[in-house]
Specification:
Largest sheet: 6 strands, antiparallel
Structural class: mainly beta
Order of helices and strands: EEHEEEE
Strand content: over 45%
CATH topology: Thiol Ester Dehydrase, Chain A
Strand order of the largest sheet: 1-2-4-5-6-3
Number of domains: 1
Number of strands: 6
Distance between the termini: 28 Å
Helix content: 10-25%
Radius of gyration: 14 Å
Length: 122
């Protein structure tokens, strides 16, 4: 099973120390038949993977999450009713070869997920 076909990242904008993107989930993806049958929701680990993939794009190479200081799952994402969501945040490269990143995944006024953590860049 591929997470790549579960979602698509589009409209990724990286400006100075900020980023934003649109995430489109595929509600027909096989993962939703088991998470959960009859009431599909996007797994939390997939949301963390999206943040990591954006961190890879910001760093220009593969990164490894070294710390998840604050990860909050605030509302479930129904892939049928919330197929398209937005993610935005800030980042900072530090002298110790880490990328500090904060992100929020939202749709209109609903906040689904918040992330604050660091990624090892080398």
């Amino acid at each position: 099973m591929s997470l790549k076909s579960l979602y698509t990242i589009s409209e990724l904008n990286i400006n100075e120390n900020e980023f934003s993107a649109r995430i489109a989930f595929d509600p027909s993806h096989e993962i939703f038949s088991g998470h959960f049958p009859g009431q599909p929701i996007v797994p939390g680990v997939c949301l963390i993977h999206i943040v990591k993939e954006i961190a890879n794009k910001i760093a220009g190479r593969e990164v490894l999450m070294s710390n998840g200081k604050n990860i909050k799952f605030l509302n479930v994402i129904d892939p049928g009713g919330n197929k398209d969501v937005n993610i935005k945040g800030t980042f900072l490269f530090k002298q110790d070869d880490t990328l500090s990143l904060s992100a929020s995944l939202t749709k209109e006024t609903v906040v689904f997920f918040k992330f604050k953590g660091t990624f090892k860049t080398s």
